[in-house]
Amino acid sequence: MATRGVMVGLLLAAVAASCAHAQLHEKFYSESCPSVEDVVRKEMVRALSLAPSLAAPLLRMHFHDCFVRGCDGSVLLDSANKTAEKDALPNQTLRGFDFVERVKAAVEKACPDTVSCADVLTLIARDAVWLSKGPFWEVPLGRRDGSVSISNETDALPPPTANITVLTQLFAAKNLDIKDLVVLSAAHTIGTSHCFSFSDRLYNFTGLDNASDIDPTLEPFYMAKLKSKCASLDDNTTLVEMDPGSFKTFDLDYFKLVSKRRGLFHSDGALLTDAFTRAYILRHATGAFKDEFFTDFAVSMVKMGDTDVLTGSQGEIRKKCSVVNH
User: Which residues are annotated as catalytic?
Assistant: First the structure.
């Protein structure tokens, strides 16, 4: 924790600068709900001790929330006619919604009508990283919950098929720069993916749909291993580790894999096509700058968590994360 403590200190200035305009602050609940972080962490420790693989889906859920309408908890809302964000194709593989509701219920018991679902999800994401042996950072709080969730707006999510131009455009739309792009992409160091998110690289790269229609940028031995797991384009159930061998540990192995052309998604491989992102990957593929990367990741997470947030009298504090209050 000594290294992490130093890291938090280094982040304080960046946190204050990035969140000042949004009225977010690490001590937002210091009087109204001082136990909120302890309550969330207790639930996280309990859950991840039983199912450590849940960390990555919870982190992913926070990403998907922030990229659509900002970090307002809209990804958590249900829709009777299946037109909410969670019903859209990119979000149909999200999991952990019931767990978020459980954490929110625990927070409500401690501090009724005080802490937003958006803040609960942001704290969950931070703890998902930290409990996976990643960095710890102070989370600016004070978000309010949105009441609108529209499936068609998930076009704002960076798809796994995106090239570097599309990726930079989608990140820029959220005031995230190219450094944030390469840093946050390393969240792929934990978790798994369904074959259909990348199988076109194995069988249908240019649309020919045959065994030789492969992505030439993917390392051949890695491609063969993926083909042994994902037998065809029709495989909709098989899960593959994004960071083979350490997919439950937040580490620098992602950079090593991408540097060897073993990034699972198009979007991972695309990071080698830009001079800045390529240089960042090669630097951290050495494994010699762990603290530097951990600090970068924490800063980018805080920055992303400040995206288009609702504060003050905007939005509401939902009692249940899946439904609006009225």
Answer: 64
